[in-house]
Amino acid sequence: SRILRRSFATAASSEWGQFQPSVRSDVTHPIRRFIENEIKMPKEHKLPFMSFALGEPITQTGFEMPQSIKDAMKDIIDKGMSNGYTMSTGIPEAKQAIAKAYSTATHPVDPNNIIISPGSYCVLFFTFMTLCNPGEYVLEPKPGFPNPSCEALGVKERFYNLLPERGWECDLDHMESLIDEKVKAIVVNDPSNPCGSNWPKQHKLDIIDLAKKHKLPLICDEAYYGLVFGEGAEFHPFGTLSDEVPMFCTGSVSKLFCCPGWRMGWGIAYNTHNYLTPFIERIQKVTQLLLSAPTPMQACLPTILETPSSYFDEYRNKIYSIAKYFFEEMKTIKGLKPMMPKGAIYMMVELDLDKFKDIESDKDFCQMLLTEYNAFLMPGQAVGIKNYFRINLCGAEEQQREVIRRIREFCEKHTVQLFTNILEFILCSW
Questions:
Q1: φ, ψ for residue 25 (rounded to 5)?
Q2: Other CB atoms closer than 10 Å to residue 195's CB: what's the count?
Q3: Pairing outcome for strands 265-270 and 114-117
């Protein structure tokens, strides 16, 4: 009977072997791949687990969304009037609230040019699907937040360099060298994940001029819209800087309002000369694939976008304070070179691997830190750059102090120690 069962199993396997996963489903999200597949989490550890790998401004990391948003959401749920389906592009009242929040005197936003989706990531997916055919290209920043949706759509990516010595500005010469007839759009991200940049106005104007020269639309990832800090910090939204270059700009509630799990984002098409009209009509069709973000979240959006500026002032100051603390502490740790951010909720830290005796890459650094000290950071390779790690700026005071303590102790353990004086050298040699 055992032989019969084995024969039946072999026959069944052969008969059903024609069913294979599709080629396009074999996609890779570098960050999620590292977190969910490559990293080896300690099963047991004497130290409590600490994660500074993902940007999560939530209660557990010392951040709270405004009470007005909590109250509004409770009221929406209690009334039960937002539990049904809605238009695939979003609730009209929510789109009007976005238009009001993002309009300026010189650059008004048309609610009809807005879509609402389950996170700004989906807006990027819709945009790539609408702008590009399989085999065509978009330009994206490196380091940067990856877009595996391109891989699924058959859209190709070319990566232009960001310059750490210039505050992570774009290398415009390199960007232009990547442009040919197959390139259909340029993706920009500022304030940047992972770099924490806040580009000056002139740099953004230079990017716009390059896009205008080559007649390419900009896809502007502005999930950290306005989240900039430091003395004299100003934020200049791309959509307010040009009437000539068409743009798709994304936004989100996730990081600005401390609710990343709510998954609600939006896209705004800046279409002054109607260049994007056929694309807007098509992208509105594409949104029918996912039937919009959850309606209770959308119903809450007018309240969310009326949050007082005092909340953002406090939020920015808190992130800035954490950034300064991390920067001042890590610049005293051998082998580390922190890059002071100017926006978003991340800091990039360069690794001087020559200073370490048994660490050969940023992945080694992050894995060994996790194994030995149960502290989780994001290796630079996950965002397209070697010999760096990214640390997020979300953490209560005690969490900040503890993660710095662990990083410092880890580096002291693994860096090459030089003799501090001649006597120590003689004693050790003896």
A1: -80, -10
A2: 30
A3: antiparallel
